[in-house]
Specification:
single chain, 561 residues, alpha+beta, 2 domains, globular
Length: 561
Amino acid sequence: MSAEGGVDVDPLTVAVVWGRLAAIAEEMAEAQQRCAFSDQVREGGDYSTAVFDATGRMLAQANRSPAHLGAMPHVVRNMLGAYPATSLAPGDVIVLNDPYMGSGHLPDLFAMSPAFDADRLVGFVVSCIHLTDIGGPAPGSQAVVGVTDSVQEGLRLLPTRLYRQGEPVREILDLIGANVRVPDAVLGDIRAQRAALHVGATKLGQFHARTGTRVVDAAAEEFLTRSEQAVRHELLAIPDGTATFVDHLDDYGPGTPPIRLEAAVTISGSNLTFDFSGTDPQTPSSLNCTLSYLRAYCYWVAKAITTRDTIPQNEGQLRPVRVTAPPGCFFNPVQPAALNGRALLNQRIVELLFGALSKIVPDRVCAASGQWVNPIFGGAEPDTGRTFVFYDYVMGGVGARASKDGLDAIPPTVSVENIPVEAQEARNPIIVERYELIPDSGGAGTFRGGLGVRKDIRMLADDVVLSNLTDRHVFSAYGLFGGRDGVLGETVLNPGAPAERRLHSKEVVHLQRGDVVSFRCSGSGGVGPPSERPRAKVLEDVRQGRVTPERAHELYGVDVP
């Protein structure tokens, strides 16, 4: 076939170019993870990488966080608006964490480098990493309560040149280090980003030199077109129509009202529209969501119901998708609304859309998943006085599908992993006393929802600040088609002690040595009537400890011998 500029690119060439660009993105990801300082990046995988062409279109991405990757096209456009391609040189690194320019919240730092073949610009490589801290009122920079505007949340970076021709801009690095609680961790991860970008820019330049820029560009044009066509082809097979769904966040802090989330999904021919006009207004807290972050998970859902794993994600697949939310809406707040608490929203956006899509493509969605917990502790090491920030996430599970049980202790929408306890205890003054699945927490159904997870953490230091961030303490994870909802989550301080008390899902708490905080993720929703679950499966659930004999009788009508 003849492509742009008269260059012939056969299907094999297209496949080779596509595969090599995806491999470069994955090699960047591996370099970043190996060089990272923080647990959430090195052990948990909270980062992303991608490859763009010379015009700023995303060609390939590593299989990492949809939140980062879906926002990258918007971020890159804003970076290039401030630093045009003609102003960039090999080794330059431009960074940005401004939520209103594409970052989901201030802790997510995006970084971009140009790639050259000799003196010819051939593309860009991009990285995003979740920094351990970026300042603000509480360790980890994700406090919800008491934060009313973005100025309070930490250091905000508009597009800024952090490395110039491979050399660090010392004043900017010093500025960042002076405004965070753990500069070693933060600057260590930023250097890991620089290493990943160096790997990506070098390999992308070498690939263009070996293959020829005209061939690479022609093949890229072809596979972007093919990707768009593949999504449109799948959408055409789905009947036209509009479906709506409503869910709620518990609140945005103690004593505050629920937040109504509403989505309308419209399929019209080969176009897909997500409309959030029915959602509540922005809140006077840090629990709000930017339009770029919203788009990122709309793109994820679009892929989930169309091409899924058959085609790697790129900018061509985004073209059939339109996302709308009015200014001032919870999903499109107006500056200077605060945003750092948006971390808990990734799966909630997906679940909102899956709820609507369950009325259109019921076999391609799952029930609501157990809400993950994202607590952050901060204080001083008791022996050295050194400041620590312990960033954690506890992954619940995944809702049941139309033909399968849900999964336990697996994130439903983000490519991160539960961080090993051994690494956490070695680097922070804490002990993890319990880490286990919660029996009976998954919603009953023909297909059972994934179980919630319990993690109990004991403090080994005084004057520790906990910034809790989770949800589904009030509104449970919904089931579908007769399946039961998952069990509500909770956070308990000093469980079993006389002073035991429940903590709010978004509370900032001061802890002392010996205090234990028990985080309990909500369970995931089930699918289908529980009465239709085969007896053998119920008995196997009981044998494995997922369901107690009492609940087997109550929910499934199965008596355990």
